[in-house]
Amino acid sequence: MHSSEISIWFFIGVLLTVYGALILGYGVSELVSGHVANVVLADLHAPVWWGGCLLALGLFYGVRFRPGRQN
Amino acid sequence: MHPLALNSTIVGAVGHTPAHLAFAVSPLAHLTGLDIIVIAVYFAMVLWIGYYLKQRANTSEEFFMAGREMTAWIAGLSFVSANLGSLELMGWAGSAYQYGILAAHWYWIGAIPAMLFLGMVMMPFYYVCKTHSVPGYLKLRYGQGASVVSAISFAFMTVLMSGVNMFAMAEVMKVVLGWDLNFSIIVSSLAVAAYVALGGLRSAIFNEVLQFVLIWGGALLVPILGLVEAGGWNGFKAKLAHNIAIGAIAPGDYTHMWRSMGHFSDNPMGIHWTGIVFGLGFAISFGYWTTDFLVVQRVLAANSLRSARMAPIIGSFFKMAVPFIVILPGLLGLVVLQNPDGSLMHLVGQNVAAANPGAGLHSYNEVLPLMLIRYCGPGLLGLGITALIAGFMSGMAGNVSAFSAVWTYDIYQPLIVKNARDEHYVAVGRWATVLGVIISIGTAYLVMNAAGIMDYVQALFSFFISPLLGAVLMGMFWKRATKAGGFWGLLCGTLTSIGLWAWVKIDPSALRYVALSPDAKDMAENMYRALWSVCTAVLVVFVVSLFGKPRPDAELDGLVYGATKLPTEEPVPFYKNEWYWMVIAIIAFLGLNIYFW
């Protein structure tokens, strides 16, 4: 792969970042509003920590493999 | 209602407690606005990748072989992802619910030894001879006849497999979301056709890696939360034992893989350990992972021989981990899924569910979506559904990209237009991609009447893949094998498989001969049928070759063990050495089997 090209890991980073932000945002708003989804184990607030994990992973890959960076 | 949950949430729960949510009238769930956004972002991303990579798919080497520039990691993840279709996800989760952890045999002994064998033993020959496909290898080794037989059977199988995948995906979307079956099929198919036709194999591979990550991101949460609810693995086993003791679940050993394999009647699959080891672990598994061009194509795209050998080894670790997101949710469904009245839910066979449409019954294949709906609210549900769609699309893209390459290189070029310009074959490949999708759509409607998805797939494997294994192994490891031997071995192996299948269909009592026991069931029949077809192919190659004149060693360079001088590779630190990681993979494989013995 040439460094000027977009790496697949960058695409993955972008996707995970978007998903992480959306799901974490929803989870946080659930926490704030107190209205949680009617699912089993809703008290564990999975959208918050799972969305956070996706966001962190996405940011890592997005930055680490951004176009133009020498990998 | 939460602002991001624009329309609704889980639908159909008769009761009001979360535990009742798993039972619902169709559709099981409605997607919220957030879920729709999650799915839309995914489609935008795969199309973006396809469009971006169009500029790098101008020559046939780029379009069909991704320029042979893939790193070991990308080739390895793509290698596993191409196999991880929605059929794989839902079908084996359903099998785990039905048969217990026995289903994990298809991920461990049914995959790992073959993947390691491909990487360490067979890959050098595939890679050194620079073939574009497995039928291409047969052409170099046995000549045009065997290659054409293999290419036509493979092309036929890929579109059937693609249709099966499509049907599985459309069905789950209909059951879970109430989506129109035609809508699911057309939208996903168009997306796959667009990104594969635009970017070729490179686009398919890139998307498969993306889909692999997405499948884990969307599906991993289900077993985690399931284990939390069940009280961990020990809690799950205790609940399972309790349910069996009170008669809520059919008696059986759901948590051990080998203990009940002593006799056909001791386990719910009706399989003997010899069938698992020799039928699944050798005939089916080696046939699929070492000669099915769908997966081998990903490794052929690697950027060096070392990467090509490392790719299946990297893939083997992920393959070993897949039961965590497929088998475990199926098992957990045995203890956590509940009816509205709080009683344990019983999933049934697809034919039973279909015969009682108003009874609120769910089939085994729905266990994964049911678990997903149980734990995932807005956003996460969209992610899980996207994972299922991604699984479907990776499986379909794998099939159509392999179909495109085999059609162009092994059927169109040698039989129809022999000496055209490179651009012509690239154009043919793009159109073959579209054609493959169209045929797959037609196939999807044909397979809707199949009684069981997985049995159907197993039958296909034994028809075409297992005989191919016999011919390839003999060609790769026996210099004496001749052109006529390869052709007749392949043909007789295929006819044996089809003949045995037809025999049991016409006379079910023939199962006692095909699968060696009257207690054997369908799965066992598939395994033994595959084994007999490999044996037939090997035997016919051997006998016919004895009456022919072998090719001189000089012509077999790069094709046959003992006549090929493999290139020496630069020394690397142990942690980059393929042999080191192969040993680690073997230890992990043995450890898992011993732990769940």
Which helices and strands occur, and which strands form pairs?
The complex is a heterodimer of chains A (71) and B (597).
Chain A: H1 8-33, H2 46-64
Helix pairs in contact in A: 1-2
Chain B: H1 33-53, H2 60-65, H3 72-81, H4 86-99, H5 112-128, H6 134-142, H7 144-177, H8 181-219, H9 221-230, H10 232-245, H11 273-291, H12 293-300, H13 305-321, H14 327-336, H15 350-355, H16 367-375, H17 380-415, H18 422-446, H19 453-477, H20 483-506, H21 511-514, H22 522-546, H23 578-595
Helix pairs in contact in B: 1-8, 1-17, 3-8, 3-12, 3-13, 4-14, 4-17, 5-11, 5-13, 5-23, 6-7, 7-8, 7-17, 7-18, 7-19, 7-20, 8-17, 8-18, 9-10, 9-14, 11-19, 11-22, 12-17, 13-23, 17-18, 19-20, 19-22, 20-22
Summarize the structure.
With 71 residues, chain A is mostly helical.
Describe the structure.
The complex is a heterodimer of chains A (71) and B (597). Chain A is mostly helical. In chain A, 63% of the residues lie in helices and 0% in strands. Chain A has one domain (8-64). The model of chain A has no long low-confidence stretch (mean pLDDT 89). The model of chain B is unreliable at 1-25 (pLDDT under 50). Chain B has helices spanning 33-53, 60-65, 72-81, 86-99, 112-128, 134-142, 144-177, 181-219, 221-230, 232-245, 273-291, 293-300, 305-321, 327-336, 350-355, 367-375, 380-415, 422-446, 453-477, 483-506, 511-514, 522-546, 578-595. Chain B has one domain (18-562): Sodium/glucose cotransporter (Up-down Bundle), CATH 1.20.1730.10. By secondary structure, chain B is an all-alpha fold. In chain B, α7 crosses α8 (181-219), α7 packs antiparallel against α17 and α9 (221-230) runs parallel beside α14 (327-336). The interface between A and B is large, with 32 and 43 residues.
